[in-house]
Amino acid sequence: MADAAHLGVKGVSKRYGAATVLESIDLDMARGELVTLLGPSGCGKTTLLRVIAGLVRADTGTLSLAGRDVTRMPPYRRNVGVVFQSYALFPHLDVAGNVAFGLNLKRLPKAEIEAKVRRVLALVHLEALAERPIRALSGGQQQRVALARALAVEPSVVLFDEALSALDRKLREAMQVELRQLLTSIGATAVFVTHDQEEALTMSDRIAVMHRGRIDQLADPRTLYDRPATSFALSFVGQSFRLSGRVVASEPGLSVIDTAAGQLRAPKQFLTGSDVIVATRPEHAHLGHATLGPGDNSLAGTVSNVTFQGPRSLVEVRIGDAFLTVQMPGRSAAPPIGSEVTVGWPIAETLIFPAEGEP
Amino acid sequence: MAGLTRERRTAYLLGLPAALITAALFLVPLALLFAVSFTGADGFSLSAYARLFGSEHYLWVIGNSLQLALITTLVTLVIAYPASFAIARAKGVWRSLLLGSLLLPLAASVIVKAFAWTILLRSTGIVNNTLIALGLIHEPIRMIFTETALVIGAVNVFLPFMILPIFAVVAQMDERLTEAAATLGAGPVAAFWRVTVPVTLPGVIAGIALVFSLTVSAYVVPTLLIGERYPTLPSTIAKAYLLTNEGSFGAAAGVVLLTIALAVVIVSSRLGKAPGAAR
Ligand SMILES: Nc1ncnc2c1ncn2[C@@H]1O[C@H](COP(=O)(O)OP(=O)(O)OP(=O)(O)O)[C@@H](O)[C@H]1O
Ligand SMILES: [Mg+2]
């Protein structure tokens, strides 16, 4: 399996002085796969990308790419494309010159280079700007040139370090969809770095949630959202409602947890006495006694805010010192602010994590 | 397009006062210099130029000036280019120290520096004494009043004018550019010639223009460090005005000097703007 991986990262660690920036990272990617490294600032995303590109040498671990061991290979032999956050376009060359840079180094025949440049520029819709100097381009156009320049040499893998973050929101969202379609259509293997979870969900086949130099979870977006492996992955992707508590009873496939707000059940066995985090996604929650079934958790709370949004109302309920926002269809009457309510959600949709290693 | 011309007009108007001052302080004296250089005993004459270009001696003098400027420019460039990278890559205190050691000597007069070199390089100077003490030589070697002393002094005096413009460009250069080149398949040598050099070229050109025009018109350094053995255009001008009282001849030499310096500046600014040059 690992031998078949197109990009194989195995046991990669990197320290700067006393700080461990990457800690035994494993990441296998199939050919044509789009993977996002998602995590907060300083968790090591850029460093991992630079290790893959060969711009930083890892302390331990091995790297393989397209069937070659590239652990000790310098960046200029790896055939890895990088789209930098700052784009790093060559200011002394025009658009076509930038795109042709890597092809010129391969000493291909001139006509072939020209044809390739034209083809790649067409791919990113920049045919008309081939002769423009770089300084006369908008941010979005520069981004496309950077992409075209990286793709022109047909790299084994393309790496994007927050490549879209310099664009304004609308353009960024359009580019996310377009970029994904483009990369899929040419069958590129790509690694994106971002700390924008929506970008990660839009762009990727799989997401690697990084936390303090480790990959907490590597999964497809659906699994990551529904079954986060750690409480960090839970809090970093999507909204969640979380309470801390202690397991007071357990049996195979079930734990009973005492929290400050009341007793809850979770569908996973934890040792009695262990400190845990219990959580659920807000969309699983519903209001009122009448809706409760035998397979539900329930807690009492106070309505602290109601927001009417047309098709729905958002009811914010305070439970202990945590807040849970419950969606109600627009037509049903929302309870008044300050009223006591009961919130319920299925035990099956209850997540439980050990409390240790909380951020 | 119409908006552009209006912007242009405003810019010209705003520049007018400065232009007037420049005209009064520079153009009028220059015009006088020109006029005098074309004046002989009885009115208009090319005799000063004929003398300058007609004699082997003065062609040799012009050659000396060009040679000194060329060598000094080359030597400062070779030192300044890597030095600029060293300063730009240096961190914190080191960077301040390096920049300070570059800027501080600018505060000292060129006369002081030239005299300092005469003291260091004379037969009983510290350089000779050290070499003798180390047993590398047995008797003092002649260093002062040699071409070597001249180039050492000129390089010392003009080096900052090469480093500063190059450093300014290097410090601004995005380090990611060479990394980008590497990921596109450029080894260190290719990345240097295809990215680093062209991107820093404007600084190099500015430095060359500055050092060449400063050296070609340098008076103090050649006079103190080599003297009569190596006459240059500036020393010829000084002699014409101060010793032999040949104003017209001095003016003609001045015009030639000015033309050389101007040509270098114009050519280099053209090169700096050429398509393909970074900005
Ligand atoms: N060259 C270096 N020397 C010392 N420390 C470094 C170096 N490069 C990175 N680090 C440290 O390594 C850690 C991870 O850095 P990295 O740039 O990989 O984070 P990141 O996940 O990309 O963060 P961001 O989202 O802010 O870009 C940071 O704490 C950073 O300070
Ligand atoms: Mg980063």
Tell me about this structure.
The complex is a heterodimer of chains A (359) and B (279). Chain A has 359 residues and is α+β, with helices and mostly antiparallel strands. Chain A has 2 domains: 5-229, Rossmann fold; 241-357, Beta Barrel (OB fold (Dihydrolipoamide Acetyltransferase, E2P)). In chain A, 25% of the residues lie in helices and 36% in strands. Chain A has 9 helices and 20 strands. In chain A, strands 6-7-8-3-9-10 form a 6-stranded mixed beta sheet, sandwiched between helices. A 5-stranded antiparallel beta sheet of chain A has the order 13-12-11-14-20, with no helix packed on it. The longest helix of chain A has 17 residues, at 169-185. The model of chain A has no long low-confidence stretch (mean pLDDT 91). By secondary structure, chain B is mainly α. Chain B is 79% helix and 1% strand. Chain B is built from 12 helices and 2 strands, in the order αββααααααααααα. Chain B has helices at residues 2-37, 47-54, 56-89, 92-107, 110-121, 126-133, 147-172, 176-183, 188-216, 220-225, 233-242, 247-273; strands spanning 39-40, 43-44. In chain B, helix 3 (56-89) crosses helix 9 (188-216) and helix 9 (188-216) packs antiparallel against helix 12 (247-273). Mean pLDDT of chain B is 90; it is low at 275-279. At the A-B interface, helix 2, strand 6 and helix 3 of A face helix 8 and helix 9 of B. Bound molecules: adenosine-5'-triphosphate and magnesium ion. Adenosine-5'-triphosphate (ATP) binds at residues 16, 21, 39, 41-47, 195 of chain A.
Structural topology:
The complex is a heterodimer of chains A (359) and B (279).
Chain A: E1 7-16, E2 19-29, E3 34-38, H1 45-53, E4 60-65, E5 68-69, H2 75-78, E6 80-83, H3 95-105, H4 110-123, H5 139-152, E7 157-161, H6 169-185, E8 190-194, H7 197-203, E9 206-211, E10 214-219, H8 221-226, H9 231-236, E11 241-251, E12 254-259, E13 262-266, E14 275-280, E15 286-287, E16 296-308, E17 312-319, E18 322-329, E19 340-346, E20 351-354
Parallel strand pairs in A: 3-8, 3-9, 6-7, 7-8
Antiparallel strand pairs in A: 1-2, 1-4, 4-5, 9-10, 11-12, 11-14, 12-13, 14-20, 15-19, 16-17, 16-19, 17-18
Helix pairs in contact in A: 3-4, 3-5, 4-5
Chain B: H1 2-37, E1 39-40, E2 43-44, H2 47-54, H3 56-89, H4 92-107, H5 110-121, H6 126-133, H7 147-172, H8 176-183, H9 188-216, H10 220-225, H11 233-242, H12 247-273
Antiparallel strand pairs in B: 1-2
Helix pairs in contact in B: 1-12, 2-3, 2-12, 3-7, 3-9, 4-7, 5-7, 7-9, 8-9, 9-12, 11-12
The complex binds adenosine-5'-triphosphate and magnesium ion (MG).
